[in-house]
Design brief:
Layout lengths: L1 H22 L2 E3 L1 H10 L4 E4 L3 H4 L8 E2 L7 H8 L5 E5 L4 H12 L3 E5 L2 H10 L2
Parallel strand pairs: 1-5, 2-3, 2-4, 4-5
């Protein structure tokens, strides 16, 4: 009997972990992001770096919302459409993951851009 309960608990844990990954933050590579940007107009691309970093360059048409700012969520809610995916990048991937988690909790469909702006420069800009 105890074995059956243990197996049932294990199966439920596996099912729940798969479900949360499916509905959670998704990752997207720089190359896949480039395809999305080429094939879709009005993509919600969000740069969550600081204003000092934006001066160094951004991806064309990115919406700049500093994730470390106290008004990040307020600005995101005002500028973004919850019915469309949101592609989020930072310098290298750490802050964009945090921003993605915050936006997920607010009902958005976030995609975390792997490697961030550094990878964009290396893969796309330098070609």
């Amino acid at each position: 009997m105890k074995k059956n309960i243990l197996y049932l608990g294990l199966i439920l844990t596996i099912i729940m972990s798969c479900a949360s990954k499916e509905d959670g933050v998704k990752d997207i590579s720089i190359n896949d992001l480039q395809v999305v940007l080429k094939n879709n107009e009005n993509v919600q691309l969000v740069d969550v770096r600081t204003p000092e970093e934006w001066v160094e360059g951004t991806i064309k048409n990115a919406i700049e919302i500093n994730v470390t700012g106290s008004d990040f969520e307020k600005k995101a809610l005002a500028k973004l459409d919850k019915t469309k995916p949101v592609y989020i990048y930072c310098r290298s991937g750490g802050r964009s993951k945090i921003a993605s988690e915050l936006l997920l909790k607010k009902g958005f469909q976030p995609y975390n851009v792997l490697g961030g702006y550094k990878a964009w420069e290396k893969e796309i800009v330098k070609k």
